[in-house]
Amino acid sequence: MLDQREKPQFYLLSLLLAVGTQLILAMDSWRAACQNNFPGWVDAWAEFEALQAIASYAFEQPGCIFPELVECAPMFEAEQLGHPLIEASRCVCNDVAFNDQSRFYLVTGSNMSGKSTFLRAIGLNTVIALAGGPVRASSARLSHLSICASLAITDSLLEGRSKFLAEVERLGAMIASNQSGKPILFLIDEIFSGTNSQDRKIAAESVIHTLLNGGAVGAISTHDLALTEMADDPAKAGVLVHMESNNPDDPLDFDYLVKPGVSMRSNAMAIVRMLGISTIRTGSTVMKA
Known about the structure:
The protein is an alpha/beta fold. It is built from 7 helices and 12 strands. The chain has helices spanning 8-17, 19-34, 38-60, 115-130, 163-179, 197-213, 268-274; strands at 68-69, 76-81, 94-98, 104-109, 139-142, 146-150, 184-188, 217-222, 238-243, 259-260, 279-282, 285-288. It starts with 7 loop residues before the first helix and ends with a strand.
């Protein structure tokens, strides 16, 4: 009506009747009468948008399944779990089981072997599942969990914070959430990579011990084979798994499959070749890369 009053055929009449003023007063009265309902309208619209997004995702991913949500101690079990953002034609899937018998995975392996992507696949599918959406798996069961992740941590010049301090703060928040009584799924990538092996081992064992005592389940990845000793304690119910190449001639030919045990294969020579270096010096020894 405000737009209409500007048209030539209505302009003089609207000035005579003060239509603009009356409309402004009417809108203000409507706003006063309905303002308390506005938050409810926004919540309803937000829920509609969320349901629409989940429905669209389910339609676009016919191979995904809706998981079973169970009321029990923290647990996450899935068969053929894949990363939801990787094309189905090239997505490599793995089985995962966090429960009373296997409370955490300790994942070893070299760079580019898929450890970080494996942890992200667990986290993203858990978020989607708890939002009511389908997950990329052949079957899945999980309890209600709070996802706590330490992935892709970076430093900040603006905040004067190193990568190591950023990780410590993230892990501190994870422990605080765990101690508050929430059921936690923790995902920690390359734990304490910014410190020496001895300190890393002591600190990592303390973090995992604290999280497990609070009932948490999850996965931790590392290059440091000294950390695999954490899984030796039967009370922790840790499981050693690794990701590496099965091709002895090419240690960078990864299959991205999670295998039992500890990774014992090195790809240092392949990395050197990637850098364009033809010879390697180790002390007084010289050898071809």
